[in-house]
Amino acid sequence: MLGAGIVSEVFDFRGQGLPRFDFALCTDRPGRVRTDVGLPLVVEHGLDRLASADLVIALPWNDFRTPPAPAVLDALTAAHGRGALVAAHCVGAFALAAAGLLDGRRATTHWRFAGLLAERHPDVTVDPDALYVDEGSVATGAGAAAGFDLCLHLLRREYGATTANAIARDLVLPSHRDGGQAQYLATPVPEDSQDEKLSEVLAWAREHLHEPLPVAELASRALMSRRSFARRFAASTGTTPHAWLLGLRLSRAEELLETTDLPVEEIAHAVGFGSAAVLRAQFVRRRGVPPRSYRRSFTRTPPA
């Protein structure tokens, strides 16, 4: 039920210049489908609905240890074969693996079942830590609420940061979470106010991206040593201060490229890169295209 709720919320129509999606739930046996919380869900569409889909997301299901019906696997394979983007989150990844769509690719799933996925499908490179893995025509997401991370990533990939951020804001979600699943495993409740202080410092850093922001200064503002700050930062975010700042700066650069006419040099300084050349190098590494090409792609009005 959570998986169905996640995708229906993300791809719901909100107006206000955002893309409108033709969203539908499908099953191999249309009608009343019993969910994991006991509530029945009426699904009108059969697998034939997948024949015209641009994006197919396989949702988690209780009996994932048993492969889906052959008709489901054939429908997934056919959708991928004609060029649709096929994705899954949580144990929905087992359906893509059973269809052979993950062979030779990296993938993720809920950390609890990553070992089982790797054992059953040795041709799949399973990353148990990633929140999502994008392999181009196939994408997978981690467990439970990480379905939001996958869906928002797909929106960001196809429509740009502005659209993904707007929908995330409507859902009261971060548009991008740093780190991986490891940060959510048996994390103890903080025994002091250090995490609260860390949150204040991160909020301050977001407002001062145009400044250098060395780790020593962030640690000082958090009233910690550099070593303690780095350890607390990794425990809270699953990544390093440098990687967190880099991702934040690039995301902000994407927004400015999409929504303003500022020259690339000005954007570079506004987000904390010393020059347009540095921004370009980091942008190409992350997006695969230079900033100007990205701007041309994502300032157009997206199709319905």
Structure description:
There is one protein chain. This protein has helices at residues 2-10, 70-81, 93-98, 114-120, 146-159, 161-170, 194-206, 215-221, 226-237, 241-259, 264-270, 276-287, 291-298; strands at residues 31-34, 40-43, 55-58, 85-89, 106-107, 125-126, 132-134, 138-141. It has 304 residues and is an alpha/beta fold. The longest helix is centred in the C-terminal third of the chain and has 19 residues, at 241-259. Strands 3-4-8-7 form a four-stranded mixed sheet. A two-stranded antiparallel ribbon has the order 1-2. A two-stranded parallel sheet has the order 5-6. The chain is globular, with a radius of gyration of 21 Å.
Q: What are the defining features of this structure?
A:
304 residues, alpha/beta, 4-stranded mixed sheet, two-stranded antiparallel ribbon, 9% strand
Strand arrangement in the largest pleated sheet = 3-4-8-7
Structural class estimated from helices and strands: alpha/beta
Q: What does the main sheet amount to? A: 4 strands, mixed
Share of residues in strands: 5-15%
Low-confidence stretches: 185-192
